[in-house]
Request: fold
Amino acid sequence: MNIAIFASGRGSNFQAILNAIDSGLLPAQIAVLISNKSDAGAMEIARAHNIPTQHLSRKMFSSEEALADAMLEVLEKNHGEFIALSGYMKKIPAQVIHQYRDRIVNIHPALLPSFGGEGMYGYRVHEAVIASGEKVSGATVHLVDEEYDRGPIVLQKTIAIAQNETPDSLAEKVLKIEHEIFPLALKAFAEGRVKVEGRKAWIT
Reply:
């Protein structure tokens, strides 16, 4: 499976995916990395592994449609069969979602459907989880549709929240889970073990 990575930040989940490929766990290869930030850490990781990179930002285009066309052109040129959002902080254009229906996944640092939606990312998520008084948190791999964090859930893992938990300590715990389950979810897709029916998805 040729995976296209979309990333905005340092790329720790991207690195976890590369590690899973290198170890033989994930039967896939990275086709291209697309980022909305030219200086993203993920871009440096890709270059160090001789993976093609492309900087595509909304500011570079006259419309959302033009951005989507550019994304699709890069994906086609690099034979991207599947898209993994690895800390990508922008909404995916509808044209791209339509073209890659049920072939785009995201990793979210909470147990969806709770603590998701527009503006709920990174530190904000962990603050909200702790403020709510929840006893558990975790990470979710889900398919991407037209709404933030609303696509079918593919894989989740939970962790207990300690009494003295802080957003920083919770973020560290959850990130470890993300690095564990994201490659496993991609492995299931690569092996054809993910079934999708309407709003439901599961691994066989």
